[in-house]
Specification:
The complex is a heterodimer of chains A (399) and B (409).
Chain A: H1 2-20, H2 22-25, H3 45-60, E1 72-73, H4 78-81, E2 94-97, E3 99-101, E4 104-105, E5 113-114, E6 117-118, E7 133-136, H5 144-149, H6 152-156, E8 174-176, E9 195-197, H7 208-220, H8 243-255, H9 267-278, E10 289-290, E11 303-304, E12 312-314, E13 332-334, H10 363-368, H11 375-382, H12 386-398
Antiparallel strand pairs in A: 1-6, 2-5, 2-7, 3-4, 8-9, 10-11, 12-13
Chain B: H1 2-15, E1 26-29, E2 49-52, E3 57-72, E4 75-95, E5 98-107, E6 112-125, E7 128-136, H2 158-163, E8 169-181, E9 184-193, E10 229-238, E11 242-252, E12 257-258, E13 261-262, E14 268-280, E15 285-296, E16 309-326, E17 329-344, E18 360-373, E19 376-387, E20 396-408
Antiparallel strand pairs in B: 1-2, 2-3, 3-4, 3-20, 4-5, 5-6, 6-7, 7-8, 8-9, 9-10, 10-11, 11-14, 12-13, 14-15, 15-16, 16-17, 17-18, 18-19, 19-20
Classes of the chains: A alpha+beta (399), B mainly beta (409).
Chain lengths: 399, 409
């Protein structure tokens, strides 16, 4: 009997310890600065609820042939290409083609995007040999709401198409013809019916709704009331995703937090920031922006550090793929935001796959691939001491 | 309504026409007459049954319930209470050589009902028995030997339930038999059944996922492609050493033709498994394990998310530390238990980079179990698990405690 009581005591004690120690047992949450995903701070309950719905649609909803996938496609879900809301991997790279001159479509069948996968029984598209094309590695999607909240006027402040200040840096907006469903906001400015593209490697998407519906359609083969044409048949078919889901995903993208810099006060990192400025990297990768008033309070009057100017720049012949989008030249690329750069390996399988098509496998390689307007920075980088290079890389990794 | 009627019918069969409430009128019996030489293939009959009076009908079942507090990367769903399944068995010895057994499982509080086994066995000789109906394909051992009260762990092995699709039942027919000579036993099973469908590569899991085919209940009515799934198993047992089984399950899984029209080429699925169990006489330790390999013909153009090779398994080590009468339980046993499990849903490398495709998981589960009787187990498990996505990004860390019981009744 005594043994029984002893056992009961032990079992009771262990059970008590387990229950009371629950929070110790559960694995620790990674630091906020080490994660790309998560909402902006300051969202209301209603906004958090919509964020959650968008999060599920973006990261959990997987399309199947029964729910509209394809029949030709690139990926089965948003999260497949943007794991953890971060950059994609070479295995999820997509191919764009069909335009070799600004504002001039060649009218090639299947353009502007190759659907290189197909559900069983179907054949995917194949790029005709010799067709100029671009490969795009999916970008990180964090902080996009802050970029979307900026005014066209703010973006145009940095544009210098004719390099009137003589610094060798131009900066050109990609004026695109927006889709029919685009509703200009107070912060958009029209130029002969065209608007400034902000998103995409060539800045070919005018806003996040445009980006999202195009991705559903071109990447997953999903039609919506916004993009009703099936990529396989090129015919209008019933919507395969609801307007509400699209809106939820757009809201999710608008309210994802911005990446948080790690150890900004570290002396090496601070030194690296100085090197970054000295090399004139910050002429295009503009660090600091502030949003105006927004319909989402958490986006209003926020200062943030994306390291981009959202403009197109001549990147030289080495990065000229011979294909383009909108009004961009084939050698022009939109300055990609550098925020979250150091967390890229956490979404790219432990490695760096940088530049628009993953051709660079380290930050240093990526810097050395800069040409055109960035040729000066490229050359100055090569003249740095190893300590300065290390500090610069450390700074970039901290973003 | 259908579920209510089904439940009513099962219970009506179970309690027979002469309903009894006096438990002394029930007798514990086992339909299998060769239980002393039982192998994994006998698992469906190696269960406690109760008979009423002189009826040929025997009934039984088991229930599982648990509490868990789990969390992933610092985020927890809090305290959760579950009743994963409640299962009823109804068996009948129609003739000394003809018997019937059914297993009906209620999950999600009765929201999901599945007939996992409902088969008629006709015995010719011990080495030749015929079985037909809804059978559990003998791939590995766990699929047939899955009753909660037989295990010291609250969760079923992930490799066997989310790679192999235990519990995987199909309509079909086949043969089985076994023979013991001295300490050695040999058993075989072979069945032709309906099988998988396109959902194994077209599902919400975003991976090749055999359990997706379980959602297709039409397989109990018709084959999706007219090609039978072949499942076979050979097992050898030595009374002093243990049992080892090798099994195979394979066939065409996709709907390649419909209404006379060819829609796709024929695509195969092949599964190989090895299972073993033993007990060490010196220490009384029980060791059970199973490993399986899956090969699926995934269209080359469908995307690398859907692997054409998978592998995984588990090993359980159970060490009784106390065997003695305790608090009125004559055969009480206290065990320490440890499970190690691993699944790789996508074995291979990326075409673009040559890097490893991950999409894998491993877990360790130490635990304590207390069996007041052989038919009832109280379990306390701690689960620690790491799961990587297809790219091999930093793994999700999942851990927590589980406390629960499982008991035959």
């Amino acid at each position: 009997m005594n043994t029984l009581i002893t056992w009961i005591k032990w079992i009771g004690f262990l059970g008590f310890m387990f229950v009371m120690g629950c929070d110790i047992i559960v694995p620790e949450e990674p630091a906020d600065e080490d994660l790309l995903d998560g909402p902006l701070s300051g969202l209301s309950y209603e906004e958090q609820l919509q964020f959650l719905k968008g999060d599920i649609a973006f990261n959990d909803d997987v399309f199947t042939p029964e729910t509209g996938l394809g029949p030709i496609f690139v990926a089965t879900s948003c999260g497949s290409c943007h794991p953890g809301d971060g950059k994609g991997h070479p295995s999820t790279t997509l191919t764009r083609f069909g335009q070799t001159e600004p504002n001039t479509s060649l009218g090639l069948p299947g353009a502007p995007q190759l659907q290189n996968r197909a559900i069983p029984g179907y054949q995917p598209e194949k790029l005709p040999e010799g067709t100029p094309h671009m490969k795009f590695t999916p970008p990180a999607v964090t902080g996009l709401g802050l970029l979307a909240a900026l005014t066209d006027a703010q973006i145009l402040e940095n544009a210098d198409p004719n390099d009137e200040d003589g610094d060798g840096i131009s900066g050109v907006p990609n004026y695109i013809t927006p889709p029919d469903y685009f509703i200009p906001q107070w912060y958009h400015q029209s130029q002969n019916g065209k608007y400034i593209g902000r998103f995409g490697k060539k800045a070919a998407a005018v806003d996040l709704l445009h980006q999202t519906t195009t991705a559903y359609n071109q990447d997953i083969g999903i039609t919506s009331t916004f993009e009703p044409k099936d990529v396989y048949s090129d015919l209008t078919i019933d919507p395969e995703v609801s307007d509400q889901t699209v809106r939820d995903v757009v809201f999710y993208l608008r309210t994802l937090k911005a990446p948080i810099q790690r150890k900004p006060a570290d002396p090496d990192i601070m030194h690296g920031r100085e090197v970054f400025n000295t090399l004139q990297c910050s002429s295009c990768h503009i660090p600091k922006w502030t949003t105006p008033e927004s319909d989402i309070a958490a986006l209003s009057n926020k200062t943030f550090y994306p390291y981009t100017d959202l403009l197109l720049h001549d990147m030289g012949p080495g990065l000229d793929d011979g294909a383009t989008e909108g009004s961009a030249e084939t050698y022009e690329w939109r300055t990609p935001p550098l925020w979250g750069l150091g967390l890229s390996p956490d979404s790219q399988g432990g490695k760096y796959f940088l530049m628009h098509d993953s051709r660079a496998e380290s930050i240093e390689e990526a810097i050395l691939m800069h040409g055109g307007e960035a040729q000066y920075s490229h050359e100055q980088f090569q003249l740095l001491s190893s300590e300065e290079k290390e500090a610069l890389i450390k700074f970039l990794e901290s973003l | 309504m259908k579920k209510t009627i089904l439940l009513f019918l099962i219970l009506a069969c179970a309690i027979n026409a002469n309903a009894q409430i006096d438990s002394t009128l029930f007798k514990d019996t086992r339909i299998d007459t060769v239980s002393a030489n039982a192998m994994n293939m006998d698992a469906v009959y190696e269960r406690p049954f109760y008979q009423t009076g002189t009826s040929h009908v025997s009934v039984g079942g088991y229930i599982e319930a648990d509490y868990q507090y789990m969390g992933e990367d610092g985020i927890t769903e809090g305290h959760t209470f579950r009743i994963p399944r409640f299962t009823l068995f109804v068996g009948s010895s129609i003739h000394p050589k003809i018997r019937f057994l059914s297993e009906t499982e209620f999950e999600e509080g009765g929201g999901k009902i599945a007939i996992e086994f409902a088969a008629l066995d006709v015995s010719v000789i011990p080495m030749l028995n015929f079985r037909g109906g809804i059978i559990m394909n003998p791939i590995g051992a766990f699929n047939q030997n899955h009753d909660g009260p037989k295990w010291e762990f609250i969760d079923r092995p992930i490799a066997m339930t989310e790679m192999l699709p235990a519990t995987w039942s199909n309509v079909g027919f086949g043969l089985y038999g076994k023979r013991f000579v001295n300490n050695w036993g040999f058993g075989y099973e072979i069945y032709l059944t309906n099988g998988f469908n396109n959902s194994i590569i077209a599902n919400g899991e975003n991976r090749t996922f055999l359990p997706a085919a379980k959602e297709n209940t039409e397989r109990f009515e018709e084959s999706n492609n007219g090609m039978p799934l072949i499942t076979g198993k050979l097992a050898v047992k030595n009374q002093n050493i243990g049992e080892i089984g090798v099994s195979y399950m394979g066939g065409i899984y996709n709907t390649f033709e419909d209404d006379g029209l060819f829609l796709d080429e024929k695509r195969r699925l092949d599964v190989y498994a090895v299972d073993f169990n033993t007990s060490l006489d010196i220490t009384g330790t029980y060791i059970t394990g199973e490993w399986a390999w899956v090969r699926v013909d995934v269209p080359e153009t469908y995307g690398q998310q859907f692997g054409n090779r998978q592998q995984g398994g588990f090993v359980d080590i159970v060490q009784p530390v106390l065997k003695r009468p305790l608090a009125g339980f004559e055969n009480a046993v206290l065990n320490l238990a440890f499970r190690l499990e691993y699944v790789d849903w996508n074995v291979g490398t990326f075409r673009e980079t040559g890097g490893n495709i991950s999409d894998d998981l491993w877990a360790i589960i130490p635990g304590v179990s207390f069996r007041p009787s052989a038919q009832t187990v109280l379990r306390l498990n701690y689960r620690y698990m790491q799961q990587q996505d297809i790219l091999g990004n930093p793994p999700a860390k999942i851990a927590g405690i589980q406390i629960g019981f499982s008991s035959y009744f």
